[in-house]
Amino acid sequence: MATKGRTKKEPFPEIKKKNEGKFTSWVKRNMPGKSTCAGASAVMKNTDKYSKGVVAMANYANNFGCSKK
Fold this sequence. Notes:
Blueprint: H1 22-30, H2 36-45, H3 52-65
Helix pairs in contact: 2-3
């Protein structure tokens, strides 16, 4: 029987020190007035419009920073 999701516990994917705050500053420059989470949602709704790097940062923000409990 196949299992869904991760089967092995992996460490939490950490952000390198040199990359901390990159997406937040990108959102402030390119989407004034939006929060980081709102910017991440907007990028993920229209991934063709943004570069691969911005989409990756937005995906990380959505998955690990903007999740609601």
